[in-house]
Each structure stands twice: as structure tokens, then as C-alpha cells.
Write a structure and sequence with these properties.
five-stranded mixed beta sheet; five-stranded antiparallel beta sheet; globular; 454 residues; Methylamine Dehydrogenase, Chain H; mainly beta; 9% helix; signal; DUF4374 domain-containing protein
Length: 454
């Protein structure tokens, strides 16, 4: 029989507090000295489970979270059941979750429905025990009820949410009731950016901008159709926003699904003012940079490293230097590194040493119950290498398109592995040695899946 979760961390902290109380209240110089114990090296690992809505793997039935201390997370004899015993996160569909760097706080903005756009945060207490901190705040009036948001890496102080709205500009050329001679001009792209004080649950700033491409590209029907994953540069004076470039047929204004890709684009704003938008372009990558559900760009060693998707040459990790321009001398192509075709980065996360874990699919991925099969790789930003992690078992139904996050503890990275509707495990990757170990068992339910660790 599997062991069930026991909150050993709470017991340890209570005992430590008792010992410290005894040592502090004694005034007898002959009484034994009780040395202060070292701080517990454990941290909370929070697992998120996405329940099925109407179809296996859609995650539209809501999100549940469950926390376990890192020692127990590494123990394969321990079993947890987030779907049966987890805390239900407020969200109509799959919640968009973030965590503090120490794992002690979970941040959430509800996605869609009546509560869409509501921000809340919780203390992590172990198991299904999450205590809301203070009152929430709604950002729906700024970025809608289904916001795309992220926690900036500024010491857990700020979140940023974004949206883009599009409208075709048409010149009617003096249209009469009898003659229609409309001419497509361009597709307008208005972006909105709001920053949120995570500590005090307050709106910090909001700005809107019209983002243009060159007149030549816009006449061909190109426009920015989706944005996401804002990221601070190392100096914390610029905000980078990933972008997806789309295209319409100028003759019909119908959206084209197949078109010649432009160089990967990023919108750059002054920070914290959110003013002076510019667009920078890569000559290495030719895919989108907005990502999907997970953080798509990270600051490391003075630069920002950014994944792209839908690149005709396979996904790349791109580099934006301290000068706030793409560094095209840095070439990290996943097709070449992994020896596959059409690599697509689903999510990724580096540790402080520049080594990390990356989820991907490729042209050889099996088609599972919810979509293409996913895999994990160990990557090195400095060496520009990627190696599939063979210690993790794979299944055609191992679906990672909605994967959101990895828990980073020093150079260890925690991830969840479980095919749709099947049990799996937490795995712990030591990025220094490359060794991957199986941890606690994850009990699944029909049609559902796990979307990450925080």
C-alpha cells in the first residue's frame, strides 16, 4: 500500500520553534545551550491538475492544486491524489497559475467565466490547505476576462497582463449603393498592458499602444495577432512582450493559415512607464515568440533567452542582449540539437546555472488522445545543447501542449509526468549532473492530466 502525504515540514517547524522558545526564555547561565537549528531545506512543491471538460485532455473542467514538501516529492513510495483531494482554484477553465520563488505563495488570475480576470493569492500550507491572502482585485476592465498574464522576475513584486485587438482598415474608395470597390489598407493592432502589484493587490499601471509593422508588410496583410509572456530585462528598465505574426489575404481579408514567416518579433516597452513601444526582429528565428500557457522567456546572465514556436526550421531559443536587440550571433536550433524535424517548444525553464528542462514535440510525435505526444529534454544555454531525458517514460497520450510550469529549487527542477487519464509521477532533474529521479506517484482520473509543478 502506498504511503499517504504527511506534513512533516509543519511538524519540523513546530519542534524547531519549541526548541528556540526554550533557549530564549532561560536566564540561567548554567543551563545547557541549545543551538539554533539550520533552516529546513525543504520547500513546497505544488502540483496542478487539469480536469477534463467535454473531451479528454481539454482541461476545461477546472484546476486543482496540491502541495507536498520537496523531500516527499522525491519519494516514489508516496502517492498523492490531487483530483480527489486538491484545492479547487477559482477559474472557469484551466487556471493561469504562478508561484513565488520560494514556493510558499501561489498567485492566480481566473480565466474566463463570471470570475474571469480576478486576481488572488494564497499561502501554501501543505496538501489541499491553501489560505487566501487579503482581498483580490479584478483586471478584467483592462485586459478582459481571459487575460494572458505572467509574474515578472522582480522578487515576486509585479505581475503583467496583456491583450491585443485587431481590426481591418478598409478604404471604400467612394463606394456607392451600386458599386463596391473596397481596398484593404492594413490590419490595426492595439495592445494593452497592465502591471499588477502582487504584494498589495493593486493596479500599478496601464497603457495602450497601436503597434505597426512596415507599410510594405502591412500592405501584404501581415499584422501582430497575439501577444503574451512579458519579461523584464536584466536592468529592469525594459519589458519584452512576445508576439505572434498573422496574415490576411489583402484581396479577401480572410486569414491565411499558410504564409511566408517573418523574423521572430518582440515588442519592447520602457519599464515601469510602459511607454515608447518599439519592435525588434530576429534574423535567426522565424517563428512566434508569444508562447502559449507557460513562461516563454527568461533572463539569464544579463540577457533574455526566448523560445519561438511555429518556426519553419524548428523551434529556436533566441537571445536578446543587454542592448535590447536580438543577438543574431547566438544560434540554438532544437532540430539540430535534438536530431529531430519540426521541433516545437511547448514549455521550458532554466535554473540559475543556465541549464534547464524543455518540453517539446516534433514531426515524429505519436498522435495521442488529446494531441501530439510530448517529450522532455535537458538543455544548456551556454553550450547550446539539448538531450532527450530518457529516464522519463513516454506514452502516446503524454500530452504537454497545456503544460505551464516547473518548480526550480537551486539546480534541481521538478516536473510532472502522466499521460492523459493515466497515473504518473513527479520527476526531479539535477541539471548539474543530468541525473533524473522518479518521485512521488500522481494518481490521475479519466480524461484528465497534470499541467506542471510550482
Amino acid at each position: 500500500m502506498k504511503n499517504r502525504f504527511l506534513n512533516l515540514k509543519t511538524l519540523s517547524l513546530a519542534c524547531t520553534a519549541l526548541l528556540l522558545t526554550v533557549s530564549c526564555t532561560s536566564d540561567d547561565p548554567d543551563s545547557p545551550v541549545i543551538e539554533e537549528e539550520k533552516e529546513d531545506s525543504n520547500r513546497w512543491i505544488t502540483v496542478a491538475a487539469a480536469r477534463m471538460g467535454e473531451n479528454p485532455g481539454d482541461g476545461n473542467g477546472g484546476t486543482l492544486i496540491y502541495s507536498i514538501n520537496s523531500d516527499d516529492a522525491q519519494d516514489p513510495s508516496i502517492s498523492i491524489e490531487p483530483f480527489d483531494n486538491g484545492f479547487i482554484v477559482p477559474s472557469n477553465r484551466t487556471a493561469r497559475l504562478q508561484a513565488s520563488e520560494d514556493g510558499n505563495t501561489i498567485f492566480n488570475i481566473s480565466y474566463a467565466g463570471d470570475t474571469g480576470g480576478n486576481y488572488s493569492k494564497y499561502d501554501v500550507n501543505g496538501g489541499q490547505d491553501f489560505t487566501q491572502i487579503g482581498t483580490g482585485v479584478s483586471i478584467a476592465e483592462y485586459v478582459g476576462t481571459a487575460p494572458r498574464w505572467i509574474k515578472l522576475f522582480d522578487g515576486d513584486k509585479t505581475g503583467a497582463a496583456v491583450y491585443v485587438s485587431n481590426e481591418n482598415e478598409i478604404d471604400d474608395n467612394g463606394t456607392t449603393d451600386d458599386v463596391t470597390d473596397d481596398t484593404y489598407i492594413r490590419t490595426d493592432a492595439v495592445i494593452g498592458v497592465v502591471t499588477l502589484d502582487l504584494e498589495n493587490s493593486l493596479i500599478k499601471n496601464f497603457e495602450e499602444h497601436n503597434i505597426s509593422l512596415s507599410s510594405e508588410l502591412e500592405a501584404q496583410g501581415y499584422y501582430i495577432g497575439r501577444i503574451d509572456m512579458p519579461t523584464l530585462n536584466a536592468a529592469q528598465n525594459k519589458l519584452y512582450i512576445g508576439a505572434s505574426v498573422r496574415k490576411v489575404d489583402p484581396e479577401t481579408t480572410e486569414r491565411e493559415r499558410e504564409f511566408e514567416r517573418l523574423g521572430s518579433l518582440t515588442i519592447v516597452l520602457d519599464y515601469p512607464s510602459l511607454l515608447n513601444p518599439t519592435v525588434i526582429t530576429s534574423e535567426v528565428g522565424y517563428g512566434d515568440t508569444n508562447g502559449y500557457r507557460s513562461i516563454n522567456a527568461f533572463e539569464y546572465n544579463g540577457s533574455v533567452y526566448q523560445a519561438n514556436q511555429n518556426d519553419p526550421s524548428g523551434s529556436h531559443i533566441l537571445k536578446i542582449g543587454a542592448n535590447n536587440e536580438y543577438d543574431d550571433s547566438y544560434v540554438f536550433n532544437l532540430d539540430e540539437a535534438l536530431g529531430v524535424d519540426d521541433a516545437y517548444i511547448l514549455s521550458w525553464r532554466p535554473a540559475a546555472n543556465g541549464k534547464g528542462v524543455l518540453a517539446y514535440r516534433h514531426a515524429g510525435s505519436a498522435e495521442g488522445v488529446a494531441g501530439a505526444q510530448g517529450f522532455f529534454a535537458l538543455i544548456d544555454l551556454n553550450a547550446r545543447t539539448a538531450t532527450k531525458i530518457d529516464a522519463i517514460p513516454y506514452d502516446p497520450d503524454f500530452y504537454l501542449f497545456q503544460y505551464q510550469n516547473y518548480a526550480v529549487d537551486g539546480t534541481d527542477i521538478y516536473l510532472t509526468q502522466a499521460p492523459v487519464g493515466k497515473n504518473g509521477n513527479i520527476y526531479v532533474v539535477d541539471t548539474e549532473t543530468g541525473i533524473t529521479n522518479k518521485g512521488a506517484e500522481l494518481i490521475n482520473v479519466e480524461g484528465s492530466h497534470f499541467i506542471g509543478a510550482w
